[in-house]
Amino acid sequence: MPNPGQIGPREREILTAIIETYISSGEPVGSRTLSRVNKDGLSPATIRNVMADLVDAGFLEQPHTSAGRVPTAQAYRYYVDQISGKAVLSPEDQTLISSTLQGTVDIQQFLERTSHVLSLVSSGVGVAIAKTGVQNALEHVHFSRQGPNKVLAVVVTKSGMVHDRMMRLERDLSQTDLDTAANYINANFRGWTVDKVKAEIAQRIEHERTQYDQLMQSLKELYKSGALTAEQPAANIFVEGVANLVANEEDRERLRDLLKTLEEKERMAELLAAYLDTREEAVRVVIGLEEAMPQMRNFVLIGAPARVGGEMRGSLAVIGPTRMDYQHTITAVSYIAQLFDKLLNEHA
Amino acid sequence: MPNPGQIGPREREILTAIIETYISSGEPVGSRTLSRVNKDGLSPATIRNVMADLVDAGFLEQPHTSAGRVPTAQAYRYYVDQISGKAVLSPEDQTLISSTLQGTVDIQQFLERTSHVLSLVSSGVGVAIAKTGVQNALEHVHFSRQGPNKVLAVVVTKSGMVHDRMMRLERDLSQTDLDTAANYINANFRGWTVDKVKAEIAQRIEHERTQYDQLMQSLKELYKSGALTAEQPAANIFVEGVANLVANEEDRERLRDLLKTLEEKERMAELLAAYLDTREEAVRVVIGLEEAMPQMRNFVLIGAPARVGGEMRGSLAVIGPTRMDYQHTITAVSYIAQLFDKLLNEHA
DNA sequence: CATTAGCACTCTCCCTCCCCAAGTGCCATC
DNA sequence: GATGGCACTTGGGGAGGGAGAGTGCTAATG
Question: Closest approach of chain A CAs to the CA of B116, in angstroms?
Fold first, then answer.
């Protein structure tokens, strides 16, 4: 008898068959059913023996004594490793994905369509995120006075992202002051990263002792109000396909919690960041989400990061039931992730 | 016996009591229960007689012979008319709303928080929408070259909204060309409505016959690509609190459809536009949503428009179960609608 | 004459019981 | 080692049977 986790080829084959049967039927798999499905004419009794071994090895569970077997998290992990790399994108998916994403030029649109198409191909929830990135190169800023002490700052980066931020200043500035400040920044710092611009301005303000330099006063005021601070806006986090969960979560209370969590977009961003910000390029399959989020019992995350120069600038993922078509979904996520990566790098 | 719809004061009182009991309990109301609740010591038998009349008049239904009565859509309509104007905002709601909306300066943030707070106070789904409005006064445009034939247009309106749009041009333009065009527009048209600017540019292009005027060529190219066309972006439609529906829709299939519909933000925008773009200022309660959308059986819409100079620029609404605390919700919607109106008019 | 008490009747809900189908584990056999 | 046979376990589902809540109707009552 092999050690837990160490199983022979016969066991592998049967385990795979069990997982696939369970995924497609949703019901505990019995030895009889399996012997009918399996090509090699193994008898139910033989399969029962193997199954018993697989239970010992931690790959299967029984909901109750006289029920069939159900794959454990460990089994899914094994299964995913097994099939990784083997999959090929189906022509239908290929068509669906390219026709949906065709002609997207701006990132928000891409994110929106991506989350949508992910939910379609996976029967799960599609998530797509891009970081606003203060590491982006500055293209243009504009300040517009909206009322007493109230200024709208618009920052455009070379990557084509637009951040706007309404601010309340301590001192009122005229539109002329604002234009002067914007011109100064645009003329001097175009092409710098937003981060560096911020640091530089901080320094120049510091060194400027002349109280009466109008420009510096304006810059200081704007700086203090965080004109160049780009927090992650909810607008860059897209979550679609929550309706798909209704079919997969029996427990209404838990379904409710799940929907609530998915609605908190910042938490989704954290979740993806936590699991996807790794060295690897590849698609990552996270089984056992319930460790971090109990309401996600029986759900898995299949996601991939998108990088620019080694740094994670975006991510996309499917959150779906453990009982999901992994091959299909992994391939789709992988394919879209490549497009995403390409899009981001094009802009960088 | 009064005509259908014509009922006496005794009937009114009992009908109101039935509706309120049903709203809070969720179960068909029986004569016995009601006689205990009702202050006037009317006996169950009397109430039964009245109930029979109310059934004839179309205000009540019986799920089955030996069950209590349930209010019909007609009854809810009556009830809502009855209580309209009588409600006062509870201190808790007042506190919740102002603390949530306090300090919001930009419209997107306001929309987001509004949809959130609406879902909180109503145990329904909160929806908040603002039109991008090409009727807004232009503050500033900026064009930024993103690659061959690819340009990012950023339009800032005086109302503080920022629209960005990635475009693909037929002819490539240099950044210098783009800056020149932007400067031209900013210098000549600041303060005009975006609509008017578009029309004016169209005309100037038309009249300009010189093929070699670089500026006009650039403008023409940008115009053709729709640089000033602001379609309604999904980013300005906020829908929150879908988790609340789980408790209210028994039928899983219908729940699924409902979630799907709520996710299609454009349809939500149409729905609100259809029901709220009226002359009235007031909160509107729409009972019988299933006529337009069958998946919304047993749900109502409580919403209000926000106007600038008579034109609808935004709207907010709660979509919740017919069994809802109308008084509470109507008051909250009304209060927030006033804030919304104020915010929009401030910016205009 | 409106109101009420009484009463027989009708449903649904829920609990219990019981059988059936599917599955298991183990032992003897090929 | 694989298989066939067999006794045992267990959840699901249908039948049956109150219990409870509610109704409509009729007769009595102020």
Answer: 10
Strand C proximity: list residues 68-127 of B with CB under 7 Å: none
Give B110-160 pLDDT, tens digit per residue: 999 999 999 999 989 999 998 866 567 888 899 988 888 888 898 888 877
pLDDT at residue A332 is higher than 90: yes
Chain A (135-194) residues lying within 8 Å, Cβ to Cβ, of chain B: 139-140, 142, 144, 146-147, 150, 152, 154, 156, 158, 160, 162, 164-168
Lowest mean pLDDT across A13-17, A236-240, B158-162: B158-162
Select from B277, B273, B263, B193 the least CA-distant residue to B234: B263
CA-wise closest residue to A124 among A332, A343, A341, A305? A332
Residue A234: pLDDT band by 50, 70, 90 thresholds?
A: low
Sign, CA torsion A323/A324/A327/A331: negative
pLDDT at residue A2, rounded to an integer = 42
* Structural contact between residues A338 and A327, judged by C-beta atoms closer than 8 angstroms: no
- State the DSSP code for A133: -
* Sequence-ordered list of residues with C-beta below 8 angstroms from that of B310, at least 6 positions apart, any chain: none
Largest CA distance in chain A: 93
CA distance B78 to chain A (A): 32
- Interface mutation target, options B166, B175, B345, chain A, most CBs of A under 10 Å: B166
A233-254 CB burial, b ≥16 within 10 A, e <16: bbbbbbbbbbbbbbebbeeeeb
